[in-house]
Amino acid sequence: MSALPKTKHYIIPEEYLIFERECIDQKHEYFDGEIFAMSSASRRHNIISFTISGLLFNTLNRRNCEAYIGEMRVKIPETGLYTYPDIVVVCEEPELEDQVFDTLLNPTVIIEILSKSTENYDRGKKFEHYRTINTLQEYLLISQEKMFVEYYQRQRNHRWIFETYSQPEEKIILSSIKVELSLKDIYKKINF
User: Fold this and answer.
1) Is residue 111 part of a domain?
2) Tens-place pLDDT, residues 131-156
3) 161 within domain boundaries
4) Which tens digits make up the pLDDT trace of 73-84?
5) According to the 3-state scheme, what is the secondary structure of the chain?
6) What domain range includes position 147?
7) Which of 32, 71, 87, 184 is the most buried (most CB within 10 A)?
């Protein structure tokens, strides 16, 4: 008698949201019927995230924009991916999936802080998903291993331009939210 092959248990998005809202000790992504546990953040990751959120606060506080740090789930409507960007900014009225108000549909800027385990995904497949969000204007990938930022900006023809920054005096202009971030400030408390 042979063993039966193991089959994957696929769930629908509504089941994922119930599961995720009840889970208090870990966050999970959801895609194509499967749930994926997210890894925890390092000390450097947390410092960079907190620093950027502070830099954004002073500027965005005077505008009709909101920034969320690590806890706001984003759904990519076209592909069905649910994920948690490290930092997400919305500068329109936030569009939310349901009345629980914890799943954003219309981000303007997404910032991911890279780790060795996620950087290929953040640059590749995840960015493919993000590019399908019509409201997304800018995408930043921030290294925690060295002073290095990758910047993507949507153009009018829906193509993306790409720039890199690696010097302390360089400044990234996030034109969609009218914010300027210097590498010196982003990495102020990080020693390499």
Assistant:
1) yes
2) 999 999 999 999 999 999 999 999 99
3) yes
4) 999 999 999 999
5) CCCCCCCCCCCCHHHHHHHHHHCCCCCEEEECCEEEECCCCCHHHHHHHHHHHHHHHHHHCCCCCEEEECCCEEECCCCCCEECCCEEEECCCCCECCCCCCEECCCCEEEEECCCCCHHHHHCHHHHHHHCCCCCCEEEEECCCCCCEEEEEECCCCCEEEEEECCCCCEEEECCCCEEEEHHHHCCCCCC
6) 42-186
7) 87
